[in-house]
């Protein structure tokens, strides 16, 4: 079964940097989209950055120029380098693997998967 696991969150001062990592494991043939979302208290989950095979990379306006998404298809991994962090970046960050083609006991499947989330807190 496919699993998605994030790491790298923590507490950082405003202006600081963090790097989040995410890896998908299982009998995976391909992944169409690897993305980062975040959800702050009392707010809806929002897209932060996404890397889509055949289409490229997109960023939320609020992080463009400060965050960089990168992907390693050989490891089914995605990373988020976050620079010049602001208090409003505080949220739980979730990794999403979408359009995952994998081999399951029931056969070949096409599905989306989420990680458990990692907390990022930006505060002095």
Describe the structure.
The chain is mostly beta strands. Helices cover about 0% and strands about 65% of the residues. It is built from no helices and 11 strands. Strands 2, 4, 5, 6, 9, 10 and 11 form a 7-stranded mixed sheet that branches. A hairpin with a 3-residue loop joins strand 5 and strand 6. The chain is elongated. It starts with a strand and ends with a strand. The model has no long low-confidence stretch (mean pLDDT about 95).
Give me some keywords for this one.
single chain, 124 residues, mainly beta, 7-stranded mixed β-sheet, 4-stranded antiparallel β-sheet, 11 strands, 63% strand
Whole-Å distance between the termini?
Answer: 41 Å
Poorly predicted residue ranges: none
- Based on DSSP secondary structure assignment, what is the total number of beta strands? 11
Taking the sheet with the most strands, its summary is: 7 strands, mixed
Order of helices and strands: EEEEEEEEEEE
Share of residues in helices = under 10%
As a percent range, the share of strand residues is over 45%
What overall form do the CA principal axes indicate? elongated
Helix and strand composition category:
mainly beta
Radius of gyration: 15 Å
Name the assembly state.
single chain
How many DSSP helices?
A: 0
Give the averaged pLDDT, no decimals: 96
